[in-house]
């Protein structure tokens, strides 16, 4: 595949992802975040495999960057999910 085809697929995926995520109702946010965390964990495994099999130092650094960014995404997803679930807990009466 040439660069234009790959770039076109990437841009279309960005648009589809944007419209899918922003049209989710708040009640479905927590399950969506759980799926997003699962996808990010698969990305970490792929980045680790790619970095281990890479021959050049640039590929190893890109693999490390992929692991770091996916880890930040997973942590942020859990933090947001925890906040969303806290909204539904009953507050203590004083």
Automatic annotation (TrEMBL):
Q: Which residues cross the membrane?
A: 6-25, 32-55, 61-81
From the Swiss-Prot or TrEMBL record, state where the protein is found: Cell inner membrane
Question: Domain NAD(P) transhydrogenase alpha subunit C-terminal, which positions?
Answer: 7-90
Matching InterPro entries: NADP_transhyd_a_C
**BP GO terms, sorted:** NADPH regeneration
- Report keywords, A-Z: Cell inner membrane, Cell membrane, Membrane, NAD, NADP, Oxidoreductase, Translocase, Transmembrane, Transmembrane helix
At the top level of its lineage, which domain of life is listed? Bacteria
Q: How does it sit in the membrane?
A: Multi-pass membrane protein
Q: Which reaction does it catalyse?
A: NAD(+) + NADPH + H(+)(in) = NADH + NADP(+) + H(+)(out)
EC numbers listed for it are 7.1.1.1
According to the UniProt record, one GO cellular component term is: plasma membrane
Molecular function GO terms recorded? NADP binding; oxidoreductase activity; proton-translocating NAD(P)+ transhydrogenase activity
Q: Which Pfam families match?
A: PNTB_4TM (PF12769)
Tell me, what does this protein do in biology? The transhydrogenation between NADH and NADP is coupled to respiration and ATP hydrolysis and functions as a proton pump across the membrane.
Instruction: Return the PANTHER family for the record.
Output: NAD(P) TRANSHYDROGENASE, PROTON-TRANSLOCATING NAD(P)(+) TRANSHYDROGENASE
Q: What name does this protein carry?
A: proton-translocating NAD(P)(+) transhydrogenase
The organism is Paraurantiacibacter namhicola
């Amino acid at each position: 595949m040439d660069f234009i085809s790959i770039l076109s697929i990437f841009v279309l995926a960005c648009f589809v992802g944007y419209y899918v995520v922003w049209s989710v109702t708040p009640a479905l946010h927590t399950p969506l975040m759980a799926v997003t965390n699962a996808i990010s964990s698969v990305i970490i495994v792929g980045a680790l495999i790619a970095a281990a099999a890479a021959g050049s130092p640039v590929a190893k650094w890109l693999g490390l960057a992929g692991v770091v960014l996916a880890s930040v995404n997973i942590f942020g997803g859990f933090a947001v999910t925890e906040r969303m679930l806290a909204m539904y807990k009953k507050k203590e009466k004083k």
